[in-house]
UniProtKB/TrEMBL annotation:
Name the UniProt record assigns to this protein: Exostosin-like protein
Gene Ontology molecular function: any one: glycosyltransferase activity
Organism (species): Corchorus olitorius
Topology term for the membrane: Single-pass type II membrane protein
Chief localisation class: Golgi
Domain of life, source organism: Eukaryota
Length: 460
């Protein structure tokens, strides 16, 4: 090393006159000093922002199995009164402006696609057609005298309420052309147990969920050859009940391999694995929206709307800041006016996380043509690998609740029209039908499955 560099120096001194020799050292040294200075400045100007956006505790140290309702806020304070973010870190106008820059793709001077409802609509449509033609699903049968038969049966009546998606999925799937009786032609194997119904069965209850699922998997493993070929990697189930997080607590291989279609797609719980599992929407079936043209032309006098139980720090914070505001209407308890009137009369409908990251509020907003505002950090949003959420919703860090009004007011009427027209465009993906219809929530959920196919099946 020393030899070769002195050789180079000798060569240089031979070829160049003395003044150059000085600058030979001066240039690199001054350059490196300037670089160090830049790094230093960069460090100072960016550190504040980075720490601001990240959880206060190292996320890798968090126990991912705990409900992590407290992540967005100050982790160091024990008393519950620290909900208002540190004002010294909150230069409101700067943050609102930055947010708007992000929405319209001008962050760091680079254009990003925040206008189109899909990441790539052409590819999606092409692939969807393939899925629609080829996808085949085998549903594991269950004995008619099974003591927990109701856990496997599709609903007779129309599903309602918070877990309707879970029941609709099975009901619609069974009526679809994706079902095959021949396991040899199946791409996927469906385990038709319902977490919500296990949860409701007093013989099983929450503690029984993981015991039941373990026993179920043992049984299909013993009776059929399909599980053992892939370790369950071409097996799936669907759950909208948040207690689905306990399903595989006693089934380790299932936890690693089975594809879960889940409403509670929280990136900070160990039972949800992004990219392996797929996020699906929680939908409370509603039927009373006016036709689409009326949704668009309707006068929406109220800026923002939230209503719901106060069961999380996010919601406490939201009400603490915006309770009694004249433009953002927040409410807990029973609404004095019909819910649909609020959703139809507001420009923005707020989804603030509750016990879990998800709720039916996003699908409600979309159904009534209201642009959803998502205050739920670490929520892996439904169909997010297909849909471009920034084009039809407003995603706000929970910490930014104090500047929420400024963010919403900063959205011009042209920008709002763009967001709302995309809400209408994606609306069909957030609805269930029996029998299912093209591009509805069933087809989209199955498309998510389709993206996770092609496991080589080793025959035993
Ligand atoms: C902007 O885009 C160009 C080309 O895609 C890329 O090379 C560059 O790194 C981007 N800059 C930023 C700040 O993202
Ligand atoms: C999907 O398949 C069904 C049944 O074969 C068919 O009626 C429908 O037109 C197909 N949709 C698309 C988009 O290919
Ligand atoms: C598994 O099989 C056993 C024996 O037939 C039965 O008692 C049990 O209920 C089955 N478990 C499930 C979850 O189906
Ligand atoms: C699948 O593998 C398990 C464990 O290795 C074994 O007990 C079971 O009998 C196998 N199932 C079939 C159908 O061969
Ligand atoms: C909202 O108004 C009610 C009733 O006047 C009052 O009790 C409450 O403290 C107010 N909330 C805020 C955040 O000002």
């Amino acid at each position: 090393m020393g030899k070769s560099s002195s050789l180079v120096l000798n060569k240089v001194s031979e070829q160049f006159p003395a003044p150059f020799k000085k600058s030979f050292y001066f240039l690199p040294i001054s350059l490196s000093l300037i670089t160090l200075l830049f790094i230093f400045i960069y460090d100072i100007t960016t550190t504040v922002d980075v720490t601001h956006n990240l959880p206060q505790t190292d996320p890798y140290l968090l126990d991912r199995s705990l409900p992590t309702d407290n992540i967005p806020f100050d982790q160091n304070s024990e008393n519950g009164d620290d909900l208002v973010a540190d004002p010294s870190r909150l230069s409101a106008s700067a943050r609102a402006n930055k947010w708007l820059g992000n929405l319209f793709g001008i962050s760091n001077g680079n254009y990003t696609n925040n206008i189109e409802a899909y990441h790539d609509e052409d590819i999606f449509l092409e692939d969807y057609k393939q899925m629609n033609k080829s996808l085949k699903i085998y549903v594991y049968p269950y004995p008619q005298d099974h003591p927990f038969k109701q856990v496997f049966e599709p609903f007779e009546s129309d599903p309602v309420g918070n877990f309707a998606s879970e029941h609709y999925f099975k009901k619609a799937l069974m009526k679809s052309h994706f079902i095959t009786e021949d396991p040899d032609e199946a791409d996927f194997f469906y385990m038709p147990f319902s977490i919500a119904l296990i949860r409701d069965d007093h013989r099983l209850d929450i503690a029984g969920i993981s015991v039941f699922v373990k026993s179920y998997i043992q049984n299909i493993t013993n009776i059929y050859p399909y599980w053992n070929r892939t370790g369950g990697a071409d097996h799936f189930y669907f759950a909208c009940h948040s207690k689905g997080r306990f399903a595989f607590d006693k089934a380790f291989v299932a936890k690693l391999n089975v594809i879960q279609l889940l409403c509670s797609s929280n990136l900070y719980i160990s039972s949800y694995v992004a990219h392996k599992d797929a996020p699906v929407p929680q939908v409370w079936p509603r039927l009373d929206a006016p036709p689409i043209p009326n949704l668009l032309t309707r006068e929406r006098k109220q800026l923002g709307f939230f209503s719901g139980g106060i069961n999380s720090r996010t919601r406490v914070y939201l009400l603490k800041v915006w309770d009694n505001d004249t433009e953002i209407f927040t409410h807990h308890g029973r609404l004095p006016t019909p819910y649909s009137e609020q959703l139809l009369g507001s420009k923005f409908c707020i989804h603030a996380r509750g016990y879990e990251v998800n709720s039916a509020r996003i699908a409600d907003a979309i159904y009534y043509g209201c642009v959803p505002v998502i205050l739920s950090n670490h929520y892996d949003l439904p169909f997010t690998d297909i849909l471009n959420w920034k084009s039809f919703s407003v995603i706000v860090n929970e910490r930014d609740i104090p500047i929420l009004k400024r963010i919403l007011q900063g959205i011009s009427s042209e920008e709002y029209a763009m967001l709302q027209s995309n809400v209408i465009k994606v609306r069909k993906h957030f609805q269930w039908h029996t029998p299912p219809t093209d591009f509805d929530a069933l087809h989209m959920s199955l498309y998510e499955l389709w993206q996770r196919r092609s496991v080589v099946k080793v025959k035993s």
